[in-house]
Each structure stands twice: as C-alpha cells, then as structure tokens.
Amino acid sequence: MPLQSHYGIENHGITNTGEVFWNFNTPRLYEEIIKRREGSVVHLGPVVVRTGHHTARAANEKFIVKEPSSEKNIWWGKVNRPFEEERFESLYLRLMAYLQGNDLFIQDCFAGANPEFRMPIRVITETAWHNLFARNMFIQARWEELESHIPEFTVLHVPHFHAIPEIDGTHSEAFIIIHFGKKLVIIGGTAYAGEIKKSIFTILNYLLPQERVMTMHSSANFGEKGDVAIFFGLSGTGKTTLSTDPSRKLIGDDEHGWSDKGVFNFEGGCYAKAIHLSKESEPEIYECTRKFGTILENVAFNIDTRRIDLDDASLTENTRAAYPITHIPTAERAKMGGHPDNIIMLTADAFGIMPPISRLTPEQTLYHFVSGYTSKIGGTEIGLGKEPQATFSACFGAPFMALHPYAYAQLLREKILKHNVKCWLVNTGWVGGPYGVGSRIKLKYTRQMINAALSGALEKSSFAEENVFGLKIPKECQDVPGEILNPVQTWKKKSDYMEKAKELAGKFRENFQQFADDCESEILEAGPKI
After folding, report:
1. CA distance 321 to 177
2. With 98 labelled, which of 73, 138, 264, 416 sits at a CA distance of 20 to 30 A?
3. Which residue numbers are catalytic?
C-alpha cells in the first residue's frame, strides 16, 4: 500500500468519508479514472478528460479571506477580492457535510525545488484525475518522506460541490478561496485543473517575496555554459514553447523563484497549451501528448480509433496537456539553475505594433514588467470574443500576485542590477499589420532571435530606437529577414501604423496610472514617448 502520513485528514475537519486513497501512483490512479468513468485512455497512453463548461480559469471567482494574519499585506482590489471569515466558515461546514460518505484521493507533495524554500503541501480531491494532475504538477515526495509529511498548505478540490451565491457571497457556483490563516484553499464548482496549481502559486507569491525570493510567472532554461534565461509571459505568448528548446536544459515552464542562490522551479510538471501543437514546431511538447501519464484536458479524439485531434477546438481553444517535466528529454532533473544572464519578456501583440525583439534598459524592463502587456483573442479566460483586446496583467500574472505589484518590481530591480542581467522584449504576435491583416510571426524567426540574444550575437548588431515606445531594435539578426525587425516597415501605410501605435501607447499610459504613485519617476519615464 502507498504510505499514509501520520497527519490524517481529521486534522482538516474531514470525517465519515468513504474510502481514502493515499498517494496512489500513476498506474493506480489510471485504474481509478477508468473505473469511475472520469476519462478515456487514448492512443499511446495519455488520458483524456473533460471539464464541463469550465474550460478556462475562472478569474472572477477567486477570493482571499480577509483575516488578521494577512490582511495588511495583501493588495486588495479587482484581483484579490476579500471574502468574509464567517462566510468561509459556513461554506466550509457545508463542504464537510457534502464530503460525508464520499471517496477521496490524497497526494502529499512539495512546491519549490530549492530545499531551502521547499513547501510541503497536500492536495485532497474528490476525483482520481485531479489527483493525477496534482501528482504530475507538483514535486513528488520520496517514499520515505510520506509518513512524516505534514502539509504547510492544503488544497481541497471538490468540483461537484457548488456554491450558492446568495448564501455564500460568491459570484457564481464556482469558487477558489484562499485562507492564509488556516493555510487552506477550497475549490468547488469548477473542474478546470489549472486552479489547483495556480492557488499554490498565489500562496508562494505571497510568502516568498517576504523572504526576499523573487517569484515569477515565467519559464526558465539554461545553455551548455550554464547561462540561465527567464521567459516572462502571459498565457498564449509562448513561455512553454520557447523555453522547451532541444539545445538547452529546461528548468521549468511556468512558475519560478529567484533566490540568492539562483533560479528554481516551483513545480514538478508542465501544463502546456495543446491547441494546434505540431510535431514540426514543438516536437518535445507534441511527444508529451502521446505518453502514458499525460492528462489531456478537453482535447478531442476519435471514439473508434482513440486517436487525438490537436487542431479540434470545438470544446475550447484552451485545451491542455499536463505531464511530469521528466517527459521532456532535456529537462533538468534538479529543476534549479544559477542566476539569469538574460530575461525575456514575451508579448503576443495582435495589433502588430511591438517589435519582434528589442533591448530594454533596466527602467524599461520594470515598466514593461509592471504593465504586463499582451493581447488576447479568445481562449484562456471565460468571456473573451474573437476580436483582439489589449490586456495588461501586472508582473505578467496579476491574478496570482497577492502583494502589490511594486513589491515584485523592487525585488526584480535589485536582482537585475546585482547580477547585471540583459533584458529583452519579444513580440510573438503579429507582423505586417494587426490581426486579420498581418500574420503571426513565424516561430522559427522568434527562436532565431532569442538564440541570437542568448548567445550574445545580437549584442554585436547596431540598434535603432523606434519613436513610440523608445525601444531599441536590432538592425539585423542572422537568418531573420531584416524587414520584419522594425514593425513600421512591414505595414502598407506608415500613417496607419502611427495611428495604431499611438492608440496602443495611450492604453499603456492609461493602465499605468494605477501604479504611478508608487513608482519612481525614471520608471514612469521609461513608458511610451507619445
């Protein structure tokens, strides 16, 4: 039998349950998934699951309990919404009553690869497949660690339990509520698995900066010489794709800390977008969709042949593959690296204004970090139409940042200056005009530009400053057509470009107003020139 911790579930107030399955491994969880009809095994062994109508992050359903231990530190507002303690208590009691007689799955694991900052966590789920998700995504405990495992934080994931907004004070039947005092997260009414990992990320974003560890919504890798690169970016900008490079070791694809010793992954797995994955463009990730142990969320498959169709978006654009990082051949087993030499900030600009690559000053880096700009065209979040929208998400991950964005920006500045890090802004979005006119930049060109930046070759290029954002654009980059480097040259009419660029600059300025009082003048001045 898998080992069970001495710290039992009665410590969470859970009693009178059905069977409790402790720390099942992947094959045993597969058996339970099939037995309980939670998913289907498809060609070559991954398991396909459906999340019902919740196919994306429910950003509006996340709350933090307003309680004495944390309320002074949290950046309250649109992102971190307060939830009353009394309401939490009554919701929790209803949740405990719901669990009576139900089977539960428990996964005891860790968040944080650096032993100094490793946090023991527990994920309790009502379904086997969400337990497999936790097993894939977090750092697995060793056999001998399980018995004495005492969780620092616990996630209770009960998708079939629905809130009653009028009684519970939630916005809908779905909820993700973090209680820092009780060291507990409760999730209900949504089966989207990403909520499990993002709730732990939010907790680390609260705790670690208070220990001078920079927390980052980023991927990270390193080259032959041990040179580390960090890729900041929101969903759909290419974090996972660009960091999974066969010539470099992957530290992780989504969540990292940067301590005095260097960079470390918070997770033990990857959660990649699966829509339109191709063997040609992303061979390593594509292969992971054909492996035992991988969970494919909302991916379509042929019921007769059991072959998947990665281009089918009929259920959602936001199809996902969750797999252990060890499925990637170039993954660094220790999930740690040194201090970064380069920071790359990714944006998928659907307006065709941002240059494919530009060099940033430390002040511009902070401006773009606090802005967290990308544009979205449907997909990762509920309620987006097909027209592109300019989206600003502070620190490239506002929904998961529990502290004021400036707390992260100050830590980032300290580390950039101390370690003399080169910083770049990379647009993985549109060139030759906006969405509908231009086209998305070829992945091979983006890879080429990033490789040139990381190798130091791009440093040798001469740079020109563009007029709107004051960004320094290289005049040439090997194997990349020169005309695409400066966006204004790819538009049919320069006047159209200027008009759209001014419009986007206005959106940047408008968004930055909320941070203006907390930022130094030199960071404000690093914004758009127009």
Report:
1. 25
2. 138
3. 57, 198, 217, 235, 239-240, 254, 320
